Amino acid sequence: MTISEGREVNVFACGQRPRREVGLQLLAEQGDGAEFMNSPDELAAVGDLVRLVEEARDFTEAQRAESTWAIYRRDWAAFSAWCSERGLKDLPAAPEALALYVAERARSDHPSTIQRRLAAVAAAHGARGLDSPTRHPTVAAVVRGVRRRLGVAPGRQVAPAVTEEVRRMVATLAPDRLISARDRALLLVGFAGAFRRSELVALDVEDLAEREEGLVATIRRSKTDQEAEGREVGLPYGSDPSTCPVRSVRNWLEVSAIRSGPLFRPITRHGRLGADRLRPADVARVVKRGAERAGLDPSRYAGHSLRSGLATSAAAAGASERAIMAQTGHRSLPMVRRYIRSGSLFLDNAAAQVGL
Fold first, then answer.
1. Cα dihedral value 101, 102, 103, 107, nearest 10
2. Under a CB-based contact definition with an 8 Å cutoff, are residues 10 and 57 in contact?
3. How far is CA 263 from CA 76, 188, 254, in A?
4. Is 31 left (phi over 0), alpha (psi -120 to 50) or beta?
5. Is 330 among the catalytic positions?
6. pTM of the model as a whole
7. DSSP state at residue 131
8. Active-site residue identified among 223, 279, 331, 341
9. Would you write out the chain's pLDDT as a tens digit for each of its 356 residues?
10. Is 290 buried (19+), middle (13-18) or exposed (0-12) by CB count in 10 A?
11. Catalytic annotation on 304?
C-alpha cells in the first residue's frame, strides 16, 4: 500500500482526495447513509457533518507544518516501498520488520535521519489508531545499538558566518544596484537577528517598528512557535554605517519603494522587483554568493550560517547564554551551548597560558 491509497494514512494524503468524498465516506462508515436523506433538514444535517469532517481534518493537518508532512510522506513512501519489495506488511508493521529496516538504513543514514524516518512510521500508525512499532523493545534495542555504534554527533555542518566574514561579504556589494541593497539588508538583518531562513523571508514591512535604539522585528511564527505566539527581536544600530542593519533596511525600503507586504523580494536579472517574497532557499544563494565574492569557500556556507554566526560571534564576545537565547529564540540550552563552545574555544584557553 502506498501513501495515496485511501484513508488508511489520510494524514499523509492532504489534498490528494476531495474532502467531500472523505466526509461522505466517514459518514457512511457510521451506518446506512440512505436513512439520513429523507428530507431537506436531514440533508442539511449531513452537509453540516461533512463540513465538520473537513474542519477536523484541517485542524489535524495543522498540528504540524506542511514541510513536516512533506518529509513524513517521503519517508513513509520509502518504508512502504521497502516492505513491498520484501513481501512485508507496512501497516501495521511488525516490530521485527521495522528493526530490519533500521539496520539497513544504518548502512547509509545518520542516526538523526533514522529517528526522523521512525517518526514518519509512528505518525502513519497513529493516523490509523494503531500502536506504533517504533516503541517496541526490539526496535528500541536496534536504535540504541545504531546510536552507540555510529555515534550521534552531527555530520558535516555549515560554517558559521562570523562578524568579520559578514563584513567581508557586505563590503563586496556594489552601492548603486538594487539587488545589492536587498542583499546587504538581508545579510545584516539575518545576521543581527539570528533569524532562521524561513523567519527572514516571512518578514513583512508591517513587522518592523522603529525605536530610538533600533528596529524591532516581530516574528509571527517560527519552527519552535507553531502556535504563532510570536516574539520580538531587537536589531540595534551598528557602530559602522556600512554594516548597520537598521540603516541597511531603511536604504532598501527607500530604493525599492516597498511600502507594505514582503520585505525581501526577488529581483530579475534585468533589475525588475517582484511582488512575491523570497523563498528560504534564496537566502542560502545570497549567502553563498556573498561568500564567494569575499574570497571564502561558498560550499562551507548556507542560509543557516547567518544564524549560527551571530550565536558564535556573540559567545566569542562574552555574551551570556540568556542573551544569546533571547536573540536566537532557542528553547534548548544544549544547542546554544554548542555555539558557545565553538565561539569560546580560545577565551581563557588553558593552553594559551602555559608559555608555549
1. 100
2. yes
3. 36, 14, 12
4. left
5. yes
6. 0.65
7. P
8. 223
9. 333 333 344 445 443 444 444 444 544 555 444 454 556 666 666 677 777 777 776 666 666 667 777 889 999 999 999 999 999 999 999 999 999 999 999 998 888 899 999 999 998 998 888 999 999 999 999 999 998 887 766 656 788 999 999 999 999 998 789 999 999 999 999 999 999 999 999 999 999 999 999 999 999 875 554 555 668 999 999 999 999 999 999 999 999 999 999 999 999 988 899 999 999 999 999 999 999 999 999 999 999 999 999 998 998 888 888 899 889 888 777 777 777 766 666 666 667 676 67
10. buried
11. yes
* Amino acid identity, position 154: P
282, 201 contact by CB (below 8 A): yes
Cβ neighbours, 10 Å, residue 309: 26
* Residue 228 falls in which region: left (phi positive, over 0), alpha (psi -120 to 50) or beta: left
Tell me whether residue 196 is one of the annotated catalytic residues.
yes
Indicate if 89 belongs to the active site.
no
HEC sequence for 207-237: HEEEECCEEEEEECCECCECCCCCEEEEEEC
Q: Which residue intervals of the chain are DSSP H helices? A: 19-28, 40-62, 66-85, 95-105, 111-127, 137-150, 163-171, 178-192, 197-202, 245-256, 280-293, 304-316, 321-328, 333-343
The cell numbers describing 185, all together, are: 539588508
Taking the C-alpha atoms of residue 305 and residue 249, their distance in angstroms, rounded to an integer, is 20
Which of 182, 197, 288, 330 is catalytic? The answer is: 330
**Residue of 73, 117, 184, 196 marked catalytic:** 196
Quote the CA–CA distance of 285 and 264 in Å, as a whole number: 14
Residue 84: other Cβ atoms inside 10 A: 13
- CB atoms closer than 10 angstroms to residue 256: 17
Please give the domain boundaries of the chain with CATH numbers for all domains: 1-63 (no CATH), 67-154 (1.10.150.130), 163-343 (1.10.443.10)
